[in-house]
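Hello Y.,

Per our agreement to keep a running log of every chain we model this quarter, I'm adding this entry. I've kept the format consistent with earlier entries: sequence first, then predicted structure.
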Amino acid sequence: ILEVNNIVKSFDNTPVLRGISFSLQQGEVLSIIGSSGSGKTTLAEALLFKAGATDRFGKITEGNTVCDFDAEEIKRKTSVLSAVAPYEWKDCKVNLIDTPGSFDFEAGIIEGIAACDTVVIELSGKSGVTVGAQRAWDLAKAQGKSIMFFISKLDRESANFMKVYNELRDLYGHAVCPVVVPHGKEGHVECYIDIAKHKAFSYDDKGNEVETQAPQTDFLRSAYDMLAETVAEADEALMEKYFLGEQFTDEAVVEGLRKGVCSGKVAPVFCGSALLLSAIDMFLYAIKNYAPAPSDKIAYAMDKNENKVEVACGVNAPTFVQVFKTVADPFVGKLSFFKVLSGKISSDTTLVNSSNGQQEKIGKLLYIQGKKQIDVKTICAGDIGAVAKLSATVTGDCLCDPSMILTMPALPFPRPTLSQAIVPKNKGDEGKISQSIARLREEDPTLNFTTNAETRQQVISGLGEQHLDVVVSKLKTKFGLEVILEKARVPYRETIKKKVKVQGKY
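Predicted structure for the entry above:
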């Protein structure tokens, strides 16, 4: 148990962590994923603020959000890295992971999905179901994660909840069911209706809720029928009642939703406006009651004979930890983010890296909220944290109790697709470039670096122009190296392709 005193406000304008006591043994882990501009960071900020984890609501335009704290993110006003931000709300601890939306930074998306139990796919009410949202669905399903949808930006004039919802139903079928829906005209929502609890709420300019009379419309009646049918399909007891024509109680619907989300048979749809804090409290309730707890999920690992092994999330089991993210800093050193899949991890214990067989002594353990670090002595199964200065561990490795050596499948990081030559502005910095990029590769497995012996060029490869541009900026800010990117030369070759007969005279 860790008790945190009130933290003095920093001199920057970033919202600060209130005096929170992270006393819960486990925490739900949710990753917010979606295309750029869908509002993922704003939704994370709204959840933290409404849960009381921060003292004020940060905004991307002001560069003071909890999750977008990196200098590149503040400059570009978009997420570049995945970020962790925990909160506690009504005896429930939740670890939020905010992920980038651009495919140039897909490493952050892979990290977030690997660490979470539930994937929240956020969609803009203006843009509909994008390629990024479909990619998030495919990745989540491939790794057996639970899925919830959140349709945001319903305060905008061109927002259309029904259009987005119908697109989801067309793509993913009856698993998609509405739970919170808006009532009103495009761009002006009069109230939000919780179909599961038969309640409606309107919101003022500060996001404060007022319970109101739920309207009676044909869509709401059909939406409840869809919800009841979907929930019944996920629970045999409810299925019997459904066929007998019995009316479900609100408690039965909530429990059926939780079971359906946990099993992956139900993907509920929620909505709201994160910027106006509308319906955010309803989503906090949904996360607490519908999202699976760590103990509801079973991880699958492989033993030394490559046999599949179930890993139950229990505190008294042998320690089994997966590192899902690495941050390399030239001054602080390497920081490894991990999820405890079973057992518990404590300072001054020694674990074995199952990938290379080397032992790692665990130093100071940390809870991370954005850029802020909180010391903690023990982190239990189901929770996530960070540890500094692991010498032989990289992203994707597992740390185990010596009595149970297990490995996890490699994280599905994409291969680099764009290569450019990197040239230092100052002569003699070629060696520093390779050393610095080696440090950056520790935190970004989608980055590659080679020296072409034929063209004598140093070539850097990434997932796109924006990705490589960020690398150039980091080389300057973190390592003091100024470089430029050029088109890489291609070493063309010729070869004999067929037999010929020729006669020549001179």
